[in-house]
Amino acid sequence: MIKILVTGANGQLGSAFQRIGTSKDFKFFFFDKNTWDISKKVYPEISGFNYIINCAAYTTVDKAESEQELAFLYNTKALEYLSEFANQNSAKLIHISSDYVYHNALNSPLKESDPCTPQGIYAKSKLDGETIVNKLCKNFNNKNIMGLRHRRP
To answer: How far apart are CA 143 and CA 96, in angstroms?
Structure first.
């Protein structure tokens, strides 16, 4: 059985994973901010899992300009902690990004290799988080939200 930790369980994306539920092949462990605040270097006491799917993020795009510290705390600094936790447990980290990091007018699916030109604090904090995962995490998979066919209005 594949064991999967999901952060941000009560958010829009995390809630979608909760609807999948546990099957004979997958067992999910859901964490929200109250059960595991990824902005703190304190980890849940759980082992033997194969994947971490990071759905947690600071997502209030407009408020990010005035709440820059919070945006960078959850979208950047927390990724250091998640990468370390994944490395300590030999788990693969799947980090969900955002199409905001690209800031282009393409109306087609984006690839992780497309150039990034983030505009605004939210996009910059998300891209900085991806950079940290790419640098620190030994076993990761970055997926932009467009790969999931979701574009914010």
So the answer is: 5
